[in-house]
Each structure stands twice: as C-alpha cells, then as structure tokens.
Hints:
Two copies of one chain form a homodimer. Helix content of chain A is about 40%, strand content about 15%. By secondary structure, chain A is an alpha/beta fold. The model of chain A is unreliable at about 1-10 (pLDDT under 50). The first copy, chain A, has helices at about 15-20, 25-30, 40-50, 60-65, 80-95, 110-120, 135-145, 165-180, 195-210, 225-235, 250-260, 295-310, and strands at about 70-75, 100-105, 125-130, 150, 160-165, 185-190, 245, 270-275, 290-295, 320-325, 325-330. The termini of chain A are far apart. Chains A and B meet through helix 4, helix 5, strand 2, helix 6 and helix 11 of A and helix 4, helix 5, strand 2, helix 6 and helix 11 of B. Strand 2 of chain A pairs antiparallel with strand 2 of chain B, so a sheet runs across the interface. Chain A binds a DNA duplex through helix 2 and helix 4.
Amino acid sequence: MAGTQGQKGGATIYSVAERAGVSIATVSRVLQGSDKVSAKTRQRVMTAVEELRYMPLGAARSLAVRHHEAHGLLLPELSGPYYSELLMGFESRAAELGQSVVLMLAEGKDDVGRAVRSLATRVDGIALLASAAIPDSVPETLAGSKPVVVIAGEAKPDVEAITTENAASAKALTAHVLAHGRRRLVFAGDPDSGPDIRDRYAGFVAAHEDLRLTAAAPVRTDLRESAGAELADRVLAGELTTDALVCANDELALAVMKRLRQGGRTVPDDLAVVGWDDVMTARYVEPGLTTVRQPVRELGALAAERLHARITSADIVDETQVLPTQLVLRASCGCTPDPLA
Amino acid sequence: MAGTQGQKGGATIYSVAERAGVSIATVSRVLQGSDKVSAKTRQRVMTAVEELRYMPLGAARSLAVRHHEAHGLLLPELSGPYYSELLMGFESRAAELGQSVVLMLAEGKDDVGRAVRSLATRVDGIALLASAAIPDSVPETLAGSKPVVVIAGEAKPDVEAITTENAASAKALTAHVLAHGRRRLVFAGDPDSGPDIRDRYAGFVAAHEDLRLTAAAPVRTDLRESAGAELADRVLAGELTTDALVCANDELALAVMKRLRQGGRTVPDDLAVVGWDDVMTARYVEPGLTTVRQPVRELGALAAERLHARITSADIVDETQVLPTQLVLRASCGCTPDPLA
DNA sequence: CTCGTCTTTGAAAGCGCTTACATCTAGTGC
DNA sequence: GCACTAGATGTAAGCGCTTTCAAAGACGAG
C-alpha cells in the first residue's frame, strides 16, 4: 500500500488516516485547517497524529502546491551588527508572511554561483546583499529563473533593489565636520567597491563644493579593523596629513581611533574621526563616535516584503527603493559631549 | 503530458528531456552528476538546461530521496556577536556537509511551539540554543519525530547537547579578581535562567571556597544593556556595596562601566568589573574589559556536525560535549594595561 | 558475421501530500 | 414516508523528480 510504510521509521498521512478511520483527504483537510471537517472527525485525526507522532514531510506539500514557502537570503558574512540587524528584520517579516528563511553566507564558498543555484532550487526567491563577496553575475543569472531582490545595490532588468540613503547623509556629516572648522578632510574607503561607498564619497564631495572647497581624493581601503589600524599608522608616521577622517564605516573609524590613542594622538583635538553605521561600540568608546544610523532592520523587513510581492504577483517595482538614514552626533567630531548619550 | 506544462511559467525535467532528445532519467542522471552518461549526451542535456533556464524544483527531489538536506537552527534572537558567530560556524559547517540552513528566531513569535513544528516539516533535524525564549518543552516534543541538538543546554533522552565550559573559567576569573585583593565581589546574573549562568555562579562560589571565603548571593538581573545601567545606578546610590562586579556577560559589564564613569566612579580604582564573551567592544573601551572568550564559532560548527551525525546514522552521544573557554585579561580587573591588547 | 560483454539509455513505478469533483449522510419541510 | 439541500467525506489524479531493472547500443574477439 502506497505510503503506509513510507518515511523510514516514521508515520505518513496513510498511517494517520488508517488509525483515525478516515481518508487521507480528511487528514489533509484537518492539518491544513479546513473548516470542511466535523469537530468529531477532527478530534479523531488529531489524536491519531499525536499517538503516531506524525511529522508531515514538507517537501511533499511543497511539490503538490508548487511553492517552497521559503525565502532565500544570501549575505557575504555575519560579522558586525549590520548583518545581524538585517537578518533579524528579514526573518521577522518573512515569518509574518508565512515564509521560512534559508540562509547562505558567501564567504568561504569555493563556487558562490553554484551554491546559489543549489539554494535557488529550494526557495521561491532570493534576496541578496550587494558586496564584493557576491559576483555581479549572480543576481542577473538568477533573475531568469527566480524572483530576486538586491539589498544595498542597484536595480536592473528583472532585479529589484532596495537601499538606504547615502549621499545626502554623507553630505550632512561632512558639512558638519567642515562646520567645526576642519579643512583637510580625508575620506577613507573605496568608492569603486560598491554603490553605497560611492554615494558616501559623492556626499563628501558635494559638501565641499557647497563651500567652494575641493575635496581630497579618497584614501582607498577596505573596511575591516586591520585596515583601520594601518590607516592610523600612516597618520602617525606623517604619511597622511589630515584634520578629520571621514571613514566609510564605524569598524574602520573605531580601529583608527584606538590606534591613534595608542600612538599618543587625541580625538577630536588632534584630528576628528567620524564613521557610518552607529554600531554598539560607537557609544561606548571615549569620545563617542559621530556617525550615521541606518534603519537596517527595516531594510531587512522591506527586502522580505518585496521578495514576497515578486513571488506572489507581477507587482514590479522598477526603481530602487531608498530608506532614510540619520546623523548621530557625539564627541569625535568636536561636539561637546552629551553626558547622557 | 505529465510535467511538460508544469511549474507555472517554468521548465520541468520533461521539457529539458524533450529538447535534448533523451529520457527524463537521463536528464536526472546528468544533473546528479552520474558517470553513467556519455559526454555527448551530457552536453546535449546541459545545452537544453541553459537554453530553457531550467531550475529544478528542490521539493520534488527531496520527496523522492526523502531528505530535505537542510538543517534547522532555532535561536532566541540575533543581537550581539555571540549569535552571529554561532550562526556563521553553523552555516559554514552545514554547507561543507551539503546541507542548507533554515533559520528561525523565537523572539516575537506568538506560538514558538507551533512555529517550530512547522519548521520541522521542512528540515531533517533541528539545532537550538537553550534560552528563556524557547520553552523547555520544545526539544523534548520535537525529539520524538526529528533529531535534535541543544546548544548551551543539557542532554536528555533523545536530545544531544553541546556547550562551552563555564564553571572552571568562572572560577579562574573569580580567583583572578580575588588575587587582586578584592573581597566584596558580587555576581550579577540569574543562575536560575539557564545552565550557563548557573555554572558561572558555581565557579564564582568555588573560587571563594578555595580561599575559605563566603560568596555573596547573586544579584539577579537579566543580561541586557538597560539592566547594566540600573545595576550601576544601585552602586552609585550606595544600595549595593562591592569592590568587584563579576557580570554574567559583557553586555551587562560594558553598560555598568559606562554608567559608573558617567557617575564619576572609576574602573578598576573604585571597583573592578569583569564580563563574559569577549565581544568586540570589550577591547575598545577604556579600560579594556577582562572577560572570558568562548569558541562560539566552533560551537556552531560542532552543532551542525552532531546534528548531521544524528540524521545520517544512529551515532548516539549520551553525554553533553563541552568546548573549552579562555580567560582574557585586560585592565578592568586591575591588571596593568597591555598597550598592544 | 556471430556472439559475448560492457556501457548507456529508457520505461515504469513510486516518494507523500493536495484537491476537484463525486458520493454519502443528516436534517428539514411537505 | 419522500424529496430536497447542505455539509461532510472519499476517490482518483497529479505535482516533479529519482532510480531499478529491462532493453538497446557499442565494441572486441573468434
């Protein structure tokens, strides 16, 4: 008899039906919450389910309804609160929409393209964070077969994109540093590494232009802790002359500040340092780090929403959706420390 | 014809077979990497796959082989680096084992038990982090139907457990603080909140007993930032008299230190503060926080390994597996600051 | 050319669940 | 008691892929 001895060592819908004395259609109706079942029959089925410890095979249902009811999420890695916040927002909203989250991290994978194709066979769509660890070809290749939403990237044909605002807040941050009287500002980060950093540098330039000043060329660096220490060493060695470092993220800024302090330089007296992201440490260090806060959790939630919309309908949004960011002033730029911040 | 028009708007194995002029069995062999196919036929199939942008429906394969090839991971939440590290270790090792990761976060869910049962229909086993957000009944109920591995919890019949060492390192940490001459130590955390905190307090007590001292009753508090500020307020108000706070985690310790500084008290001169976890901020603050480092990434990897072993075989381990932890000495306990730490 | 052996390919059955439509049952009105 | 209707339940087909075993093809030896 089909299915009765199925699922090695486990019960199937057939064994539940037999035990409850009903058809498998009735068992299915009970488990799907259909109102077309009498209370008495429902009770008999649930009793059989509990006695047999029946655990449905989700794949069978997914095949029958032709949906996995799962969203894929591809991130470069998970170090730092940005990723955690994004993931929490995504998972929470996906759960509200009745979707599981299948997570894949790109770093450490020999063949990201292949891993992603494998992921795509198991989910209804994929959201991914634009980054150097994920080749540009990945979203485009995927979009031919599955709905795709790119986070912190740019929209393309068949690929929807969402991001947080970069240029305007970077302009406001830079203008704030300039208003403190600093004139030899340096932007640390690589505008060619992705649209986010590119737009932050654009804001940096725009703030200078408003004051008829010329912005310095960027000091290209990756955004890890070690790069921050190296950057500070260049300042300490006199290779880099600046009165304010506008760092493309907090991790870089915090490492710079720490190494400067070790080298006998004070922030903001000798030079100001500002960052981007408002990570937890930013408010614990002395002086507190001036930075920009991104609504990262909301970004994750929006990614789940947009992905779901693309999976369930032809609701196509062509333009990149942008969430606002917010300047957070602390003491590292030269502001008077707020004792309660 | 069955399957030819399947997968709404997408190709199926039947359309690939038709286009390549072979049977669906041959298409399946090619995609599964079987060596029972000639190179010429393989090429014809792959060409058809690319032309049709064929994306297999993973659920169909899972049903046929009766495995989802996915591990479930249930965490309370994702705030803080402990969770990120755990998740990175888990995902990385699961990927090496050919398994996807389906992530679920307990916080914010109205009915965790129901959410977990739904998760269990879609994965081959579940690893979960013991915490207050996840009812004790969850692993036991699940274990009747699916392999379960509990992280930072205790083994039970049918439930395997893995953890990091707590008591011995807590004892060493406390002994270190006592060796600095402190005698009015207070442990901040709730030993009833779970086996980890319970064991850390046990180590706190043991270190006192070695010196024929009586350990103070624990100050019960949750481990969030806000609780740390409240704890510091009690010290500042004179409600709590102590010369060293042994905090159950870094988040608490860091918030205490910040509020104490705001209140005009100095660490470690007025009182020492030590934590647990060695989060990034611990090495950025002034003074650096003395703490205990857990191999969290390895813990996540071990969870994935053990879960896989339970899914694929009857390889039953009855005892809780324990990974070692490591004391990290910085200046907050009273040690001389190491300029390079 | 025939036969034997090995390799490759195809036909058929099946994995466990969903659901449309047919059938059965219970209740009500005449 | 009979006819009708609404609600509940069952039968049968099918979702897309895997894999066993039979059949076909290719190759080499006599």
